[in-house]
Amino acid sequence: AAKTLDYSLIDEKGNIFESRYRGLNVYDLFVEIGLNSNASDAIFFDGDGNTQTVSLSELRKRNFSNIVSPEKETAFPMLAFGVGIVGEDIMVGLPLVKDEKAAGFDDSFGNYGGPLKLIIPNSSFSMDNIVAVEITANDIDSWGHAMSDIYSEFLEHTLTLTIKNDDSEYVYDFTLAQIESMFEIIVRDSYTVLDIGECEGIDLYKFILRFAGDLLGMDNPISITAVASDGYMNDLLSVFFLEGMQLGIPDEDGNRKPLIIAYAVNGLPLVDNENHEGYTGMVGNMGGPLRVVAESNQGASVKYLTRLTVVLPGSDDLESYINVKRIADLEAIT
């Protein structure tokens, strides 16, 4: 819906001033029209053929405080079509026209720069006489969260891997960005459990072996437990046994599907709730940003995965057997 807001802006000499505009939240407008999941930038064109590129991450920002009058309502990047006068009744205003020679221009309102004008709060950036907008997209090979600014907030989400025995414990927090970089163990396959569809993620057991395959007792673990953010947990080893962890879970046709830590379904990254702007109901990409997907077993398909705990027999010092080179390589990824 259109709003009338007072903006703090900066002129070419660095002076801060206040102006009133009426228009639409430009990012919300794009979302309503429809943004692809890998959308990255907006290119604005004016009537003279000039262009300005603004990242969607910049346009997504909202709740900008008014520097001049901080008590006023917060603002957002606006595609403005009208102006008012600060301090006057909010209903007093005029449409933006192209320039000072155009019919309808009123010097007391200064209503030129239209009919559409881009306003970025608390900045010197604006663009007059916008006639077209083009949205660009990132090239994507993976369905990971780096595909778009809409999902990139989750890249710092962590999955804690804990490996322990009677006398020793090793703990490491893997970021989602690190997990999505483990190309050698990424799986993309269709799963029937919960009618979830096609999923992309990493092979759960290969993930453990990648860093802890040399640990004594890894060939005969006691438990492998997936834990959700709400405390729900499931010992996957007790459900699928070591054969299932290693070879996968048979589907109704007998084809084995690897147990995976999924970060995307049906082409879109997983988000943490249905209210997130990256959620699409037809895709069903909630329950994340990480979740377990286990073919034919709903209870083992743990949503909101935050922790994976492996318990081994024995009492050896675990840390000395961890693959420190692979850990070091991951730490270079942000």
Short key terms for the protein model shown above:
334 residues, alpha+beta, six-stranded antiparallel beta sheet, five-stranded mixed beta sheet, 6 helices, 21 strands, elongated
Structural notes for this entry:
It is elongated, with a radius of gyration of 26 Å. The model has no long low-confidence stretch (mean pLDDT 92). The relative contact order is 0.14. The protein is built from six helices and 21 strands. It starts with a strand and ends with a helix. With 334 residues, the protein is an alpha+beta fold. The strands form five sheets. Strands 1, 2, 5, 6, 7 and 8 form a six-stranded antiparallel beta sheet that branches. It has helices at 26-33, 56-60, 176-179, 204-212, 236-247, 324-331; strands spanning 3-10, 16-25, 39-46, 51-55, 78-84, 93-95, 117-119, 126-127, 130-137, 158-164, 169-175, 186-191, 197-203, 223-228, 233-235, 249-250, 256-257, 260-265, 268-269, 291-293, 305-311.
